[in-house]
Amino acid sequence: MVLFRMLPKIRRVAILGGGPSGVVAAKCLLSEGLTPAIFEQRSSFGGVWNYTPETKSRLEHIPQEDPNLDDESVPDSHGSEKPVFMSPVYNELETNIPKDLMVFNKTPFDERLQLFPGHEDTKLYVQEFSKGLERYTEFNRRVVKLVRKDGLQWEIETQDVVSAETEKKVFDAVIIATGHYNVPYIPPIDGIEEFERRHPGSIFHSKYFRVADGYKGKRVIVVGNSASGIDIASQICEVSQIPLYQSCRSKGAYKDFPLLAPEKIKIVPTIERFVPEDKTVIFSDGTIEKNIDVILFCT
Questions:
Q1: 7 belongs to a structural domain
Q2: pLDDT in tens, 8-48
Q3: What's the longest Cα–Cα distance across the chain?
Q4: How many domains does the chain have?
Q5: Which of 87, 69, 68, 67 is nearest to 77 (CA)?
Q6: Are residues 226 and 113 in the same domain?
Q7: Burial class, 101, CB count within 10 angstroms (exposed 0-12 / middle 13-18 / buried 19+)
Q8: Which InterPro entries match (predicted)?
Q9: Domain coverage including residue 98
Q10: Please, is 69 exposed, middle or buried when counting C-beta atoms within 10 Å of its C-beta (0-12, 13-18, 19+)?
Q11: Rounded-to-integer distance, Cα 284 and Cα 247, Å
């Protein structure tokens, strides 16, 4: 005899994150007669598009391979009425997809906007789409624990980012909408830790990049050739020493697109080793570059 276990009826659904994916999920659930509950650690919708001009000048962890590194808040923002969590958005960031291809259903971008909207316009677009979801959302609240109860429901423990008060609630289902690219990755390349120790601030990550001005006159290596690596390299090379070196492991997804500044950027292979004594970087093909001031990881 075969026994069948009836699945529980899903009514209440928790959504972790109030960015684009989270708010779309909430609207879809509402259209099906379900009740969503969004938990968002920031004080507004928009997720990663919430630009934070504040950044940091040095990294605490080099190398950094831990994907579970706790999300970072802007220094001194905890204890304030609305803590601010660091975003990887930089000043000149624009979308890399035309606005007509990234719209939500029946919600077009303002036709007056440029083809590739800037980060502020993109954030405002997401927030406009999210209107009406405030009643289903707990802002300034992060999920700290998620447990399956009796194989049927989910118990979620959340924490208020201002008061640190915790609370537990039970849901029939959970949607993870926390996004990508929130934790910086710095690979364990030979000599990297000592290089940073001797030359503080020389090892950096694109999450904390905001403007190119700080790279004026410096010898720079940008590691990575995906969207952010290509874009940031094209900005920095306008003020840095020429050439700017772009270290690439492979041709990447944008291999068929021309460099934005080919006369100012030199493509080099992966970094094999750092020599901190004279700020030398040795690449996997044996070539060497000396007196490197900044290595910016877009990884």
A1: no
A2: 789 999 999 999 999 999 999 999 999 999 999 999 999 99
A3: 78
A4: 2
A5: 87
A6: no
A7: exposed
A8: FAD/NAD-bd_sf (IPR036188), Flavin_mOase (IPR000960), Flavin_mOase-like (IPR020946), FMO-like (IPR050346)
A9: 12-51+87-176
A10: middle
A11: 10
Q: How far is CA 256 from CA 23, 165, 251, in A?
A: 34, 51, 9
277 class by beta-carbon count within 10 Å (0-12 exposed, 13-18 middle, 19+ buried): exposed
Average pLDDT of the residues of the chain:
92
Q: Is 73 within the bounds of a domain?
A: no
Number of neighbours of residue 242 by Cβ within 10 angstroms: 12
Prediction pTM value = 0.89
Give yes or no for a contact between 21 and 179, defined as CB atoms under 8 angstroms apart. yes
Q: 122-156 b/e with 16+ CB inside 10 Å = b?
A: bbbbbbebbeebeebbbbbbbbeeeeeeeeebbeb
Q: How does pLDDT run across 204-254, given as a tens digit for each residue?
A: 999 999 999 999 999 999 999 999 999 999 999 999 999 999 999 987 655
- Please give the Cα distance from 34 to 54 (Å, whole number): 39
Q: What CA–CA distance (Å, rounded) separates 16 from 49?
A: 16
Q: What is the DSSP letter of 124?
A: H
Helices 119-129/20-31 angle, 10° precision: 20
For residue 22, the surrounding DSSP H or E stretch is: helix 20-31
Report the first-to-last Cα separation within the chain, whole angstroms: 54
Q: Report yes or no on 2 lying in a domain.
A: no
DSSP 101: G
H or E element that contains 30: helix 20-31
Alpha-carbon Rg for the chain in angstroms = 22
Residue matched to tokens 């004279």: 278
